[in-house]
Amino acid sequence: MPNMKLTYFAHEEWEHDYISRKLPGIELDFRVGAFQVSAGGDAEIISIFVDSHFDAQAFDAFPNLKLLATRSTGFDHIDLEEAKKRNVKVVNVPTYGANTVAEYTFALLLALSRKVCEAQAQAREHNSFSQDGFVGFDLQGKTIGVVGCGSIGKHVIQIAHGFGMDVLVYDTLCETSLSSTLNFTHVTLEELLAQSDIITLHVPLTEKTQHLINSKNISLIKKGAYILNTARGGIIETDALVQALKDGTVAGAGLDVLEEEGEMKDELLLLSSPHPKEEELRTVLENHYLMDHPRVIVTPHIAFDTREAIQRILDTTIENIIAFQKGEIQNQVT
Predict the structure, then answer these.
(1) Catalytic residue among 191, 295, 301, 319
(2) How far apart are CA 141 and CA 164, in angstroms?
(3) Which of 237, 260, 261, 263 is flagged as catalytic?
(4) Of 207, 182, 231, the residue nearest 80 (C-alpha)
(5) b/e string for 53-64 if b means 16 or more Cβ within 10 A?
(6) 276, 74 in Cβ contact below 8 A?
(7) Could you confirm whether 16 is annotated as catalytic?
(8) Residue 47's closest CA among 24, 64, 63, 31?
(9) Angle, helix 278-292 to helix 238-247, in steps of 10 degrees
(10) Phi, psi (degrees; rounded to nearest 5) at 59
(11) What residues have CB less than 8 Å from 275, skipping those under 6 apart?
(12) Residue 126 annotated in active site
């Protein structure tokens, strides 16, 4: 299918030259930033990132759309039912950042365990090199509970063993043989919460995993445990986490994602809306509590963000588009 048109919603300007060079036979409509409904067009192919919410209105804006290529593993930002209705194929990048996100998970954990952020703030802001208040804890001998043993979870398990940690895993789809291959104990979610010193989340956001950690089960967490989330914000019920931090059930958290993080970006718009949703407003306010909490590290969804991972994302997306031009579909979500 020659001369197909691709509308590409870019994360950064430099992607233009890379995409143009790798897809010379395609008409490229390059736009920097997240998708906006007002940016409609006649493209048969669209490529978006996780910050672009693609719903019925978005599909309406591109009536000729045949392929939606998301440059991410997760696809909760896309209305898949709407895509099916319109016979639009959705493809993703399934394995770009297994080691990348796993490494960042431990960056968050080490920063928490050794109070790195507080120590740096004291040295930088107060020119003080006092060691008072910076006693941390070793990872060796601790139990880490890994929720999800897909490609990222497997890397987390391997890294954890390098630190001398004991590993528990909860994953209903996990192959039984993996527990002996990777040396972990397969447990229920309730057992993982009760026995883990550190809990780390590596599952996609679906109807089944929405608020997987919630007000009903968060009290099961071993008192003083830490939670890490580099997956999707909606996997943790924000209100439950706030309460658990307040009552000491959870000692701290490393969060690269927040529930309603899209609303955080458009906070002024949300607050000025004539009919703001009470639940969204509450979550935004609770997110501010998390960002201000001394034992919580919040980062802006950057666990994926390394040079190597971004190149893998772009290369796989380009391969997905080339395959589609040839009449084939690879890495299909729906």
Answers:
(1) 301
(2) 6
(3) 261
(4) 207
(5) bbeeebbebbee
(6) no
(7) no
(8) 31
(9) 40
(10) -65, -40
(11) none
(12) no
Domains and CATH numbers, the chain: 5-96+307-325 (3.40.50.720), 98-298 (3.40.50.720)
- Written as tens digits, the pLDDT of the chain (334 aa) is 457 999 999 989 999 999 999 999 899 999 998 888 777 899 999 999 988 999 999 999 999 999 999 999 989 999 999 999 999 999 999 989 899 999 999 999 999 999 999 999 999 888 889 898 899 999 999 999 999 999 999 999 999 999 999 999 999 888 878 999 999 999 999 999 999 999 999 999 999 999 999 999 999 999 999 999 999 999 999 999 999 999 999 999 999 999 976 544 444 444 444 444 566 666 777 888 899 999 999 999 999 999 999 999 999 999 999 999 999 999 999 7
- The verdict on whether 261 is a catalytic residue reads yes
For residue 261, which amino acid is it?
E
Written as six digits, the tokens of 329 are: 């579909």
Tell me the C-alpha distance between 182 and 178, whole Å: 6
Which structure tokens are listed for 94? 């399934």
Residue corresponding to tokens 């004291």? 122
Closest CA to 51 of 32, 25, 23: 32
Report the C-alpha gap between 236 and 218 in whole angstroms: 10
Name the active-site residue from 202, 232, 237, 263.
Answer: 232
Measure Cα distances from 232 to 34, 176, 240, 318 in Å: 18, 26, 16, 25
